[in-house]
Write a structure and sequence with these properties.
heterotrimer; A alpha/beta; B mainly alpha; C mainly alpha; B: mainly alpha; 11 helices; C: mainly alpha; ABC transporter involved in vitamin B12 uptake, BtuC; 15 helices; 4 strands
């Protein structure tokens, strides 16, 4: 009996030691993404990219010790008020650095919490300039809306559009911002714009589309969440509209492909990355590995929308994770303050191109991919890339 | 000119018809229980989700009747569990209970769906496309007003000419006296909820065939608007609710057409307040005098 | 109990409360969930009490609280954003039209005043309505306020529908406790004044109250305006707590949540509302969080636990309270030193009798 007791005690001690040892060598990375709400579908895809990156590189070496990276995932529900609570949960969990979020409004709301707690955050696909410009603890690895809006305005012009109808969602900072910059660019190129807004929870878009028709629009620009997007496309299809509908990065999603398939609606969107772009070897490797990983995990495949199309936000999630690890290495410490101090100097050649931060905290990204949703195959067709230089 | 207005009118009448089917449920419940059934909009949403899940599991001709049955059952259960125990409580308590049910249903739907939008299945015929003059739209848009009118006429007949209808009228006129006359209050009230939920189920099929995305909170706004329609038409009056709903549907689209898109929801509430302040009995409501 | 001992004990208790909050912040850390719950709980306590003043004490069933909080939150944010950062916040409106900033406390008071002014305007037509009509009309007004604030043409003032941020916030939980504490104390004083008694009379029987010479409309309006003033202050505190504010978040569901807090605490009990606020916030933000996390015991996944389950459990509990404990935690009683003293002495007396 005594022997058994001794054995049990010894085992317990070993276990507790192991547990403690593990605890001491864990670095927590917060994943601040929507898993529900209007942007839930996109948020899940971004998380997939982060999880895949974590499965490839699960540890990071600081000094001489190897730390295990633990992802702490919270759901910000695509709403700015819920985002505050979600951000506080991350901070109270003691994360060293935060990744996300899909959607600019929630990033801005969370940014205030991170700034107060002095925890650095890396925005993966939030494009509104306000995310970084007013927050000293937010960095970003994608391009921003003044660029994206200009790209799409130029593209619309090239397609022969002169009158644009811009439709944005009230209270969605991403939507309002991108619409604003598109309008600015389109008007400065000599076009005319009619801009209108819809409220959250709108289902009936027929009146808006009718307004576009009676305004004589030859293009509709409707940056919005995918939930609204599928309604807009569906109703545009049943109304037989003849103008193309354009939007920003959120529309690069299988939700859009499902809505477009079998209709006659032309849908263009700009995005950060193209899975069939062979010129970047890092990207090609990522795409192959990611698809394999997705197909091996049925759950993950469901979260990706049921297919293995690689979304740009997944690529950005992957890059975001890698940048965070680079920052941890550069800081040589797991403390948020050290990582924040190291982040401005971090550079990384990622799947979505080279990343280096300017003084505001934005990556110098200057290339957008424009894609067309194919109504027959239900996939995105690559149309062209556009850089700042192209715009003159 | 007419070519320009036609699409808005079509959309307005169609949305109005869908509001009307919800509004009838509100107005009947209010007429009998003096209760604003805040959960009614969520029952409408639930009907949408029933269809999403049933259609994925079985053929449509089985799923559609089953959706109606499930929705009616939900309405019945809500009344029995959340409203019946409070029959003798102050009106404020029962209204709070309605808000609680609405909160519960929304959270439950959020949980089941994971908070993501679901695509409504394509129903045969009513999801098809149809062209009327210059406007192209879905069959559901055109059919909605017709179905609404047919259902409402049937309902009015039921209330005017059947025994249960007479009981309903009696209960809404005077709760206590009706009870003394041997009317089974509980079965009358249950019947009201059954009818209301039935119409909400039909309404949801028409609504979501037009606007094919279902989210847990999508019914809240149409629900509130339908309630406004019921007040506008004179609460307790079924034809009033239908006409009120049609007017609100059309006004909403006209507001959007003239460019005040921000205010399309706010307009409905402004209308509500104007009606309440200047003509609380609505268009067709009966005058009631406050008893001391 | 003597008045002087009561005052002494009361002061001591308040001091102990603040010391406790201060200690909690030092020991648990400013970023801990405990401090978050304390901060948000204090703010919601104020808002719940302000709603209780209407619903529980005057018998006016109003559902417009979110609208007045919105007005308060926006007033605070608009007038305190540092002038230097306005250009970046009002990025689409060339920096907006307000180009000065007010001191924080003044802005909080202003938030209440503006909300009260709105309430006076809204109250004039609406307060003549009866029970559920009043509820739906105030609900409608809250939605109208939200739409107006989001209106594009008002953008230079309100920043349209976009986030407002970078205004000063508080950095210790003592601040919301102090502000909410002062406000609740004022409300308590009002309730115990002749005005408060008149309101209770209106709640219990309007016709009898009128017969006693109480001016119904004036008292209702006053109660509505005062409640909205404190809702506005609460909104300003909420804006400070969140660090960002956006009109979109002030939906009717926010009013419903506050109403449920009031019901849980007990209609007509200030201490009930305060207790219920802390309970409600602690449960929804902290204690029930584990229900949202997929958990494995060994290799077996615990059934049902996944995102969203917390809110389901939570709403079931609330329904149970609404249906079976209709009087809530406190009913219409108050937690008071007198009552406690009585309870103690009562026990003693019983003991004495038993001997």
């Amino acid at each position: 009996m005594k022997k058994v007791m001794a054995l049990v005690l010894a085992l317990m001690m070993v276990l507790t030691c192991a547990a403690f040892a593990e605890d001491a060598n864990v670095i927590k990375i917060g994943v601040f993404e929507p898993a529900s709400g209007d942007n839930g579908a996109g948020g899940k895809q971004e998380v997939l990219g982060i999880e895949y990156a974590n499965s490839l590189v699960p540890t990071v070496t600081i000094g001489d010790t190897e730390y295990t990276v633990e992802l702490v995932v919270v759901d910000n529900q695509s709403q700015t008020d819920k985002a505050v609570t979600a951000a506080q949960t991350l901070v109270s969990e003691g994360v060293s650095v935060v990744l996300g979020s899909y959607g600019s409004g929630v990033s801005m709301a969370g940014g205030e919490v991170f700034a107060q707690a002095q925890v650095p955050a890396i925005g993966c696909s939030c494009t509104n300039p306000g995310v970084t410009s007013l927050c000293d603890y937010y960095w970003r690895i994608c391009y921003i809306d003044p660029f994206q809006g200009t790209v799409m305005a130029n593209f619309a012009m090239e397609q022969g559009a002169q009158n644009a109808y811009v439709l944005t969602q009230l209270g969605d900072d991403y939507s309002t911002g991108l619409g604003f910059y598109f309008q600015q660019a389109f008007e400065s190129l000599g076009g005319t714009v009619v801009a209108e807004t819809f409220t959250e929870g709108t289902s009936d878009f027929t009146a808006y589309l009718n307004n576009a028709i009676s305004a004589g629009a030859d293009v509709v620009f409707a940056p919005s969440s995918t939930t609204s997007a599928s309604l807009i496309i569906n109703q545009a299809a049943s109304m037989n509209v003849d103008f193309p509908i354009m939007a920003g990065d959120t529309w690069e999603s299988s939700v859009i492909l499902d809505a477009v398939k079998g209709t006659s609606v032309q849908v263009y969107c700009s995005t950060f990355f193209d899975e069939r772009d062979e010129s970047n070897t890092v990207a090609a490797e990522f795409v192959a590995g990611f698809k394999e990983w997705l197909n091996a995990n049925p759950d993950k495949l469901t979260n990706n929308g049921g297919n293995d199309i690689v979304a740009a936000v997944s690529a950005l999630g992957y890059d975001g994770y890698m940048v965070a690890l680079e920052a941890v290495k550069a800081a040589g410490s797991a403390s948020p303050a050290d990582i924040a101090a190291a982040l401005p100097g971090v550079t990384y050649d990622g799947v979505t191109g080279a990343i280096a931060f300017d003084e505001i905290g934005d990556a110098q990204k200057d290339m957008a991919y424009i894609k067309l949703a194919n109504t027959e195959t239900g996939e995105f067709d690559f149309v062209k890339t556009q850089t700042v230089a192209d715009l003159g | 000119m007419f070519d320009r207005i036609l699409p808005y009118l079509l959309a307005g009448i169609s949305v109005g018809g869908q509001y009307a089917l919800i509004a009838v449920g509100y107005t009947m419940v209010y007429g009998i229980l003096r209760l604003i059934n805040f959960a009614h909009g969520d029952i409408f949403t639930a009907a949408g989700f029933f269809m999403v899940y049933f259609a994925a599991a079985m053929p449509l001709y089985v799923a559609a009747p089953l959706v109606v049955v499930a929705t009616v059952l939900l309405g019945f259960v809500v009344e029995r569990v959340a409203y019946k125990p409070l029959r003798s409580a102050p009106r404020m308590s029962i209204m709070i209970s309605a808000i609680g049910v609405s909160y519960l249903l929304q959270n439950l739907m959020w949980y089941v769906t994971g908070g993501l939008a679901k695509q409504y299945p394509v129903l045969p015929w009513i999801s098809e496309q149809i062209t009327i003059g210059p406007a192209s739209t879905k069959m559901a848009t055109v059919v909605t007003p017709v179905i609404t009118v047919l259902l409402v006429v049937a309902l009015v007949m039921l209330i005017k000419h059947t025994k249960i209808g007479m009981a309903m009228r009696a209960v809404s006129r005077d709760f206590e006296t009706a009870q003394l006359m041997g009317i089974k209050i509980n079965s009358v009230i249950s019947m009201t909820f059954v009818i209301g939920s039935f119409l909400a189920a039909i309404g949801s099929m028409l609504y979501f065939s037009n606007y094919t995305t279902v989210t847990p909170t999508i019914g809240a706004m149409p629900g509130l608007k339908a309630f406004v329609a019921a007040v506008f038409g004179g609460i307790g009056s079924i034809p009033g609710a239908v006409i009120g709903a049609m007017l609100i549907g059309i006004c909403e689209n006209v507001i959007k057409a003239v460019g005040y898109t921000t205010f399309s929801d706010a307009f409905t509430f402004a209308l509500l307040i104007v009606v309440l302040v200047f003509k609380p009995t609505g268009l067709f409501g009966e005058k009631t005098s406050e008893k001391v | 109990m003597k008045k002087s001992t009561k005052a002494a004990v009361g002061t001591l208790l308040v001091a102990a409360l603040f010391a406790g909050v201060w200690l909690a912040e030092r020991l648990a850390g400013a970023n801990s969930m405990l401090v978050t719950v304390l901060e948000k709980g204090a703010i919601y306590a104020l808002i719940a009490v302000s709603m209780n003043l209407l619903n529980g004490f005057t018998g006016l069933f109003s559902l417009g609280q979110a609208g007045f909080m919105l007005v308060g939150a926006y007033t605070y944010a608009i007038f305190t954003i540092p002038a230097a950062r306005r250009m970046a916040v009002y990025q689409y409106y060339q920096g907006g039209i307000v180009q000065f900033e007010l001191p924080c406390l003044l802005a909080i008071v202003l938030a209440g005043v503006v909300a009260a002014a709105f309430a006076a305007l809204v109250g004039l037509p609406v307060l003549r309505l009866k029970s559920d009509y009043l509820a739906i009309a105030t609900l409608g007004f809250a939605e109208i306020i939200r739409a107006v604030i989001q209106y594009d043409k008002l953008g230079p003032l309100t920043n349209g529908s976009n986030l407002l941020k970078t205004y000063p916030t508080f950095d210790t939980a003592l601040f919301p406790f102090a502000v909410a504490g002062v406000c609740i104390a004022v409300i308590l004083m009002l309730i115990h004044s002749t005005y408060g008694r008149a309101c209770k009379a209106i709640r219990d029987d309007e016709i009898a109250a009128e017969a006693m010479g109480i001016n119904l409309f004036r008292h209702k309006l006053l109660s509505f305006v005062i409640s909205s003033f404190f809702a506005g202050v609460g909104g300003a505190l909420l804006a400070m707590y969140q660090g960002t504010v956006q009109a979109n978040a002030f939906k009717s569901s926010m009013t419903y949540e506050i109403l449920l807090i009031v019901v849980i605490g007990g209609m007509g009990s200030v201490t009930g509302s305060v207790l219920a606020s802390f309970l409600f916030i602690a449960c929804s933000e902290w204690w029930l969080r584990f229900l949202d996390v997929e958990t494995f015991i060994g290799t077996v996944q615990v059934p049902l636990l996944r995102s969203g389950f917390r809110m389901v459990v939570f709403s079931v509990v609330i329904m149970a309270v609404v249906l079976f404990y209709r009087r809530g935690i406190m009913g219409d009683r108050e937690f008071s030193l007198d009552a406690i003293a009585r309870a103690f002495s009562g026990k003693k007396r019983k003991g004495a009798r038993a001997k």
